[in-house]
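User: Hey, my collaborator sent me this sequence without any context and asked if I could get a structure. I don't really work with proteins. Can you help?
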Amino acid sequence: MLEKATLGAGCFWGVEATYRRLAGVKSTQVGYMGGKLKNPTYKDVCTDSTGHAEVLEVTFDPEVVSYHDILEVFWDNHNPTTLNRQGPDVGTQYRSAIFYHSPEQEAQAKASRDAAQSRFPRPIVTEISPATEFWRAEEYHQQYLEKRGLSQCHI
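Assistant: No problem. I've predicted the 3D structure and written it out in structure-token form, which is a compact way to encode the shape of the chain:
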């Protein structure tokens, strides 16, 4: 049975491109989670007033790639010690976040965060919260880098 992971690690374009290359990932979609506005648009989220994070929803086969491995990729591909910022992107929509879908995912996320702390000189500030409604981003954001022949963002 397939599972979902929902992660915020800065601009969702590069996060999606990273996970799409991972064996066991069946599908991805970028969107918004964790805010108060219903059906937010990119323009809304960019005001930094809705409370949403840019997130990636990953549907994966746990027989091929574990949630633990999904989290390892998460820690290795962004800076979880900068509050509301990744590279040049600043605002709460760029926060580091893990939105869990079950008590098991919550426990694994917290254990993973604690284990990852030794890799970073500053405290990890990643939000770990229950998943709320996922709002799919506009179509032009889906597989954004792939559509442009790019494999990653260059920050």
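In plain terms: The chain has a mean pLDDT of 94. You can pass these tokens on to your collaborator as they are.
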